[in-house]
Amino acid sequence: MRRFFFDPSKRSGDTVFLSEEESRHIVKVLRLKAGDAIDLLDGLGAMYHAIITNIGRQVEVYVEGLVAREAGVGKPVWVWQGILKGDKMDTVVQKCTELGVTRMIPFQSSRCQGKLNQMQGPKKHERWQRIGIAACKQCLRLQPIQIDTPLTYPESLNTKSDDNGMLRLLFWEEEKNTHLHDLANIDKASSYALMLGPEGGITREEIELARLAGWRTVSLGDRILRAETATISAVSIVQYLSGNL
Length: 245
What we know:
- By secondary structure, the chain is of the alpha/beta class.
- It is about 30% helix and about 25% strand.
- The chain has helices spanning about 20-30, 90-100, 120-140, 155, 205-210, 225-240; strands at about 5, 10, 15, 35-40, 45-55, 60-70, 75-80, 105-110, 145, 150, 165-170, 190-195, 215-220.
- Strands 7, 8, 9, 10, 11, 12 and 13 form a seven-stranded parallel beta sheet that branches. A six-stranded mixed beta sheet has the order 1-4-5-6-3-2.
Protein backbone atom coordinates (compact mmCIF):
# COMPACT_ATOMS: atom_id res chain seq x y z
CA MET A 1 0.00 0.00 0.00
CA ARG A 2 1.28 3.49 -0.90
CA ARG A 3 2.00 5.65 2.17
CA PHE A 4 1.85 9.43 2.49
CA PHE A 5 2.36 11.88 5.34
CA PHE A 6 -0.25 14.49 6.16
CA ASP A 7 -0.53 17.43 8.52
CA PRO A 8 -3.11 16.55 11.22
CA SER A 9 -4.07 20.23 11.37
CA LYS A 10 -5.29 19.93 7.77
CA ARG A 11 -7.81 17.26 8.71
CA SER A 12 -11.48 18.23 8.83
CA GLY A 13 -13.51 15.32 10.18
CA ASP A 14 -12.79 12.42 7.84
CA THR A 15 -11.45 14.65 5.07
CA VAL A 16 -7.77 15.42 4.56
CA PHE A 17 -6.06 17.64 2.00
CA LEU A 18 -2.53 16.48 1.30
CA SER A 19 0.42 18.82 0.79
CA GLU A 20 1.27 19.98 -2.71
CA GLU A 21 4.44 17.89 -2.65
CA GLU A 22 2.63 14.68 -1.70
CA SER A 23 -0.17 15.52 -4.14
CA ARG A 24 2.30 16.04 -6.98
CA HIS A 25 3.85 12.64 -6.25
CA ILE A 26 0.40 11.01 -6.30
CA VAL A 27 -0.70 12.69 -9.54
CA LYS A 28 2.48 13.09 -11.61
CA VAL A 29 4.61 10.14 -10.51
CA LEU A 30 2.28 7.40 -9.32
CA ARG A 31 -0.69 8.52 -11.46
CA LEU A 32 -3.20 7.41 -8.85
CA LYS A 33 -6.86 8.23 -9.37
CA ALA A 34 -9.99 8.91 -7.39
CA GLY A 35 -11.10 5.67 -5.72
CA ASP A 36 -7.57 4.37 -5.17
CA ALA A 37 -6.67 3.30 -1.63
CA ILE A 38 -3.66 4.70 0.26
CA ASP A 39 -2.30 4.78 3.79
CA LEU A 40 -1.79 8.05 5.66
CA LEU A 41 0.84 8.73 8.33
CA ASP A 42 0.20 11.65 10.67
CA GLY A 43 3.80 11.97 11.88
CA LEU A 44 2.63 11.44 15.45
CA GLY A 45 2.67 7.65 15.43
CA ALA A 46 -0.66 6.77 13.77
CA MET A 47 -1.46 5.27 10.36
CA TYR A 48 -4.85 5.48 8.68
CA HIS A 49 -6.45 3.79 5.69
CA ALA A 50 -7.88 6.29 3.22
CA ILE A 51 -9.47 6.60 -0.22
CA ILE A 52 -8.63 9.29 -2.76
CA THR A 53 -11.77 11.31 -3.46
CA ASN A 54 -10.53 14.19 -5.59
CA ILE A 55 -7.41 14.78 -7.69
CA GLY A 56 -6.03 18.31 -7.80
CA ARG A 57 -3.22 20.57 -6.71
CA GLN A 58 -3.97 19.32 -3.20
CA VAL A 59 -5.32 15.79 -3.35
CA GLU A 60 -8.40 15.24 -1.20
CA VAL A 61 -8.83 11.93 0.62
CA TYR A 62 -11.45 10.31 2.84
CA VAL A 63 -10.11 8.67 6.02
CA GLU A 64 -11.77 5.30 6.55
CA GLY A 65 -10.15 4.41 9.86
CA LEU A 66 -7.10 3.84 12.02
CA VAL A 67 -4.84 0.99 10.90
CA ALA A 68 -2.00 1.11 13.41
CA ARG A 69 -0.53 3.20 16.18
CA GLU A 70 3.14 3.07 17.14
CA ALA A 71 3.36 1.72 20.68
CA GLY A 72 6.62 3.53 21.42
CA VAL A 73 10.03 4.23 19.98
CA GLY A 74 12.09 2.83 22.83
CA LYS A 75 14.97 4.79 24.30
CA PRO A 76 15.79 7.96 22.35
CA VAL A 77 18.97 7.85 20.27
CA TRP A 78 20.37 11.13 18.93
CA VAL A 79 23.17 11.27 16.37
CA TRP A 80 25.61 14.17 16.00
CA GLN A 81 26.97 13.73 12.47
CA GLY A 82 29.87 15.58 10.87
CA ILE A 83 28.63 16.62 7.43
CA LEU A 84 29.84 14.18 4.77
CA LYS A 85 30.72 14.82 1.16
CA GLY A 86 28.38 14.07 -1.75
CA ASP A 87 25.65 11.49 -1.31
CA LYS A 88 27.26 9.88 1.75
CA MET A 89 25.19 12.15 3.99
CA ASP A 90 22.05 11.05 2.16
CA THR A 91 22.94 7.43 2.93
CA VAL A 92 23.49 8.19 6.61
CA VAL A 93 20.15 10.01 6.90
CA GLN A 94 18.35 7.13 5.19
CA LYS A 95 19.95 4.39 7.28
CA CYS A 96 19.61 6.27 10.59
CA THR A 97 15.91 6.68 9.83
CA GLU A 98 15.54 2.96 9.13
CA LEU A 99 17.45 2.10 12.32
CA GLY A 100 15.18 4.24 14.50
CA VAL A 101 17.35 7.26 15.32
CA THR A 102 15.18 9.87 17.03
CA ARG A 103 17.08 13.02 16.09
CA MET A 104 20.06 13.95 13.93
CA ILE A 105 22.24 17.02 14.50
CA PRO A 106 24.45 17.69 11.43
CA PHE A 107 27.52 19.79 12.18
CA GLN A 108 30.43 21.34 10.31
CA SER A 109 33.81 20.74 11.89
CA SER A 110 37.28 21.75 10.75
CA ARG A 111 37.88 18.60 8.67
CA CYS A 112 34.51 18.48 6.90
CA GLN A 113 34.92 18.10 3.15
CA GLY A 114 31.25 18.83 2.54
CA LYS A 115 31.19 22.38 3.93
CA LEU A 116 27.96 24.30 3.33
CA ASN A 117 27.47 28.00 2.80
CA GLN A 118 24.37 30.00 3.78
CA MET A 119 22.68 29.14 0.48
CA GLN A 120 23.52 25.44 0.47
CA GLY A 121 22.66 24.73 4.11
CA PRO A 122 18.87 25.20 3.87
CA LYS A 123 18.73 23.31 0.56
CA LYS A 124 20.66 20.37 1.99
CA HIS A 125 18.47 20.38 5.08
CA GLU A 126 15.32 20.20 2.93
CA ARG A 127 16.84 17.35 0.95
CA TRP A 128 17.72 15.39 4.09
CA GLN A 129 14.20 15.87 5.39
CA ARG A 130 12.75 14.49 2.14
CA ILE A 131 15.09 11.50 2.34
CA GLY A 132 14.04 10.89 5.94
CA ILE A 133 10.36 11.01 5.01
CA ALA A 134 10.89 8.61 2.09
CA ALA A 135 12.78 6.22 4.37
CA CYS A 136 9.93 6.33 6.90
CA LYS A 137 7.46 5.30 4.22
CA GLN A 138 9.70 2.48 3.05
CA CYS A 139 10.36 0.98 6.50
CA LEU A 140 6.89 1.75 7.90
CA ARG A 141 8.19 4.06 10.58
CA LEU A 142 5.25 6.10 11.81
CA GLN A 143 7.15 8.99 13.41
CA PRO A 144 9.72 10.77 11.24
CA ILE A 145 13.28 11.43 12.32
CA GLN A 146 13.95 14.99 13.47
CA ILE A 147 16.80 16.53 11.48
CA ASP A 148 18.22 19.82 12.72
CA THR A 149 19.55 22.56 10.47
CA PRO A 150 23.35 22.31 10.08
CA LEU A 151 25.33 23.83 12.95
CA THR A 152 28.95 24.70 13.59
CA TYR A 153 30.80 22.23 15.79
CA PRO A 154 30.74 24.49 18.90
CA GLU A 155 27.03 25.21 18.34
CA SER A 156 26.29 21.49 18.13
CA LEU A 157 27.94 20.91 21.50
CA ASN A 158 25.43 23.32 23.01
CA THR A 159 22.50 21.19 21.82
CA LYS A 160 21.09 19.77 25.03
CA SER A 161 18.56 17.15 26.01
CA ASP A 162 16.12 17.46 28.88
CA ASP A 163 17.25 13.97 29.91
CA ASN A 164 20.09 14.27 32.42
CA GLY A 165 20.68 10.53 32.09
CA MET A 166 21.68 10.72 28.42
CA LEU A 167 24.87 8.78 27.72
CA ARG A 168 27.13 10.78 25.36
CA LEU A 169 29.50 8.67 23.25
CA LEU A 170 31.99 10.13 20.78
CA PHE A 171 33.30 7.48 18.39
CA TRP A 172 36.93 8.37 17.67
CA GLU A 173 39.40 6.38 15.62
CA GLU A 174 42.31 7.43 17.87
CA GLU A 175 40.69 6.08 21.05
CA LYS A 176 42.62 2.91 21.91
CA ASN A 177 41.62 2.16 25.50
CA THR A 178 37.83 2.26 25.71
CA HIS A 179 35.44 0.14 23.64
CA LEU A 180 31.69 -0.16 23.94
CA HIS A 181 32.00 -3.47 25.77
CA ASP A 182 34.10 -1.74 28.41
CA LEU A 183 31.22 0.52 29.42
CA ALA A 184 29.41 -0.88 32.44
CA ASN A 185 25.61 -0.71 32.48
CA ILE A 186 25.40 0.82 29.00
CA ASP A 187 21.96 -0.76 28.71
CA LYS A 188 20.80 1.15 31.79
CA ALA A 189 21.09 4.60 30.18
CA SER A 190 17.75 6.30 29.57
CA SER A 191 18.85 7.80 26.24
CA TYR A 192 21.91 7.96 24.01
CA ALA A 193 23.86 10.62 22.12
CA LEU A 194 26.31 9.39 19.48
CA MET A 195 28.83 11.64 17.76
CA LEU A 196 30.68 10.69 14.60
CA GLY A 197 32.98 12.88 12.60
CA PRO A 198 33.39 13.57 8.88
CA GLU A 199 35.71 11.72 6.48
CA GLY A 200 38.77 13.46 7.90
CA GLY A 201 37.87 12.68 11.49
CA ILE A 202 37.77 14.97 14.51
CA THR A 203 40.80 16.93 15.68
CA ARG A 204 42.28 16.60 19.16
CA GLU A 205 41.22 20.16 19.91
CA GLU A 206 37.62 19.29 19.01
CA ILE A 207 37.85 16.13 21.10
CA GLU A 208 38.87 18.16 24.14
CA LEU A 209 35.95 20.56 23.62
CA ALA A 210 33.59 17.59 23.50
CA ARG A 211 35.05 16.06 26.65
CA LEU A 212 34.54 19.34 28.48
CA ALA A 213 30.90 19.19 27.36
CA GLY A 214 30.46 15.71 28.87
CA TRP A 215 31.23 13.43 25.91
CA ARG A 216 33.13 10.17 26.40
CA THR A 217 35.39 8.87 23.61
CA VAL A 218 35.03 5.23 22.56
CA SER A 219 36.45 3.02 19.82
CA LEU A 220 34.68 1.03 17.12
CA GLY A 221 37.67 -1.30 16.79
CA ASP A 222 41.05 -1.39 15.10
CA ARG A 223 39.83 -1.06 11.52
CA ILE A 224 39.51 2.37 9.93
CA LEU A 225 35.91 2.50 8.69
CA ARG A 226 34.43 4.78 6.08
CA ALA A 227 32.56 7.62 7.75
CA GLU A 228 29.14 6.37 6.65
CA THR A 229 29.98 2.79 7.69
CA ALA A 230 31.08 4.00 11.12
CA THR A 231 27.78 5.78 11.74
CA ILE A 232 25.63 2.87 10.62
CA SER A 233 27.72 0.45 12.72
CA ALA A 234 27.65 2.63 15.84
CA VAL A 235 23.90 3.18 15.63
CA SER A 236 23.19 -0.51 15.06
CA ILE A 237 25.34 -1.63 18.00
CA VAL A 238 23.93 0.94 20.41
CA GLN A 239 20.35 0.25 19.36
CA TYR A 240 20.97 -3.42 20.11
CA LEU A 241 22.67 -2.79 23.44
CA SER A 242 19.92 -0.36 24.48
CA GLY A 243 17.22 -2.97 23.88
CA ASN A 244 15.66 -1.01 21.01
CA LEU A 245 16.38 -3.80 18.52
